[in-house]
Amino acid sequence: MTSLRWLKLNRTGLCYLPEELAALQKLEHLSVSHNNLTTLHGELSSLPSLRAIVARANSLKNSGVPDDIFKLDDLSVLDLSHNQLTECPRELENAKNMLVLNLSHNSIDTIPNQLFINLTDLLYLDLSENRLE
Question: What is any one of the record's Gene Ontology cellular component terms (predicted)?
């Protein structure tokens, strides 16, 4: 399975990311929606081909989103909707190739100004159902 490119682990009851993910060096798309994840910490930043992370409807808090995933060169899709985020992930502004960003249905109350200065290629942004004014 080392040549696997798409992996869906939706509705599997995951509480943490399996360390075996590190062996999937060609993985491009990871979907771990509707689980019991409180963190995405693990081996994601060691996956050089990773382009999309969909972690919708978990129990992710701000501390559960690792800063190092935003240094992935090809990361272009991030869906962290329906979680428990209270702010934008700190290093999100470093995701220079981000095209799709979904942070809807969280508890975010402010968006840093510099976020949109750096995310120049952004095509789709969903911030609905947050606490923005």
Answer: cytoplasm
